[in-house]
Amino acid sequence: MTDIVGNETLRSLWETMADRCANRDFMVFENRVGSVFEYTYAQFDEDVNRIANVFLSLDVQKGDFVALHLHSSPEFLMCLFGLAKIGAVAVPVNEQYLADETEYILDTAQVKCAVVEPLYLATYQELVRRGRRFEKGILVARAGQDSPVCDIEYPSMFCRSRQQPQKEQAFYDFWSMRCAEQPVLREKRPLSSSDPAQIIFTSGTTSRPKGVVVTHANMIFSGLYGDWEVSLRGSDRVLSTMPACHSNFQLAALMPVVTAGATIIIVEKFSAHRFWKQVRHYRATVIQLVAMMLRTVMLQEVDPEEKNHCVREALYFISVSDEEKEAFEERFNVKIMNTYGSTESIGWVLTDPPVGKRMWPSVGRAGLSYEVRIADKNDNELPHGETGEIQVKGVRGRTLMLEYLNNPKATEETFSADGWLKTGDQGYQDDNGWFYFVDRKSNMVKRAGENISTSEIEKILEEHPLCAEAAVIGVEDPIRDMALKAFVLPVKGAKLTPEEVEEYCRKHMASFKVPSFFEIVSEFPRTCSMKIEKKLLK
Question: Which CATH code, of 3.40.640.10, 3.40.50.980, 3.90.230.10, 3.90.1150.10, is assigned to 37-190?
């Protein structure tokens, strides 16, 4: 397979683009209170260098793991590229994690240093009280910069670790340290494209998250792949509201922007009311969508000017009904580009092609540098039309993840003997090479010998006129392997009873698929990427 990355690293790539695109807009950032900050490539590179020097001053070494518990923000990107410049490894932490979940991530990655929002400082103080040590300190970022007001007690701030008593945990004022540094990187360490750049933890909607080791080569490949996928150019403006800790943001938005020399527009907090106004205001040419965003935007009042926009591609990641897709495209005069992939696969391995026809609800064909097959439980390729596991062939550490961090058993289970990445997801391929996604492995429940897709039941439930959203899980059943439980969120102002939902199910699905239990909810627990966090449903 041709290697289009070579020994390029994030440092060499970023410095090349910062020089080549010096005066071009790199980032437009709108924070959660509406303040806007803009950076050219040259300006941002200076801040990246300052941040890299901050980490050098704390004696952060090549290969050290540094947690980034930050919202989508310039500081997150400065840290990501700053750590990459010195060979350290970023560990993004989910914005919604509490103390126990955060501690699991920090311990799994053996984190030595953390950069945190003021909002999360209480969590880190709690971890320190439990005995968790951060050898190279905790840096408090964005304090006083339109940050949310936090009812927390700030610890004392120190300027340098050498000035602190050994027995105390060092907390630093990140902004002050950044301002004190020079805009030129003062140490260039040897780097390789095969070095880890960051650890992206899976969402863990159904189980403990696993740390995906993403190399410098992985990051650069994701950028080049994304450029091909949407024909990205330097004149493009990519708008994302995805959380910075998520691969949807980093691998599908940020890196394609960097490799193309384009502009990224980061909206810190998604608002259905403001979203399309922001798309139009910032003249975005490429946007990212997930199902919840599409549905909530469609509930907003129609603006007579809303079809007057610059969007040419809307990247889409989670299935909606044919009716919802058609209504969205008709209303906003934009075509949705369907894709399929995972953090482990790095790129969206199945995608609508950048030119030519699209075959919705197909998730596309195999993209450049990937082979994709449908396999049975013994990893044998299945004929066209038969449903099985989606498996991907690529190069580990370059077009596919390197491994799961400190989890050789999970890594071994994820790759077949001949090197295919086993996604666990179900799909099929037609005779013309188009792939169709059926369901996630985590959404398959075995009930009395029958394999049942919870996604199928959720889709039927969401067709009920009074149902806004649904989630179905498997619960233990001593007789039938598993039983099904359905959680239903009614549309605003509507009233639904469990009995009414059950009656609806009996009319619209086979009897063996009808859930045994029903619960009406007022809200769902969600991940930072707005997925329903099923592991919290009981």
Answer: 3.40.50.980
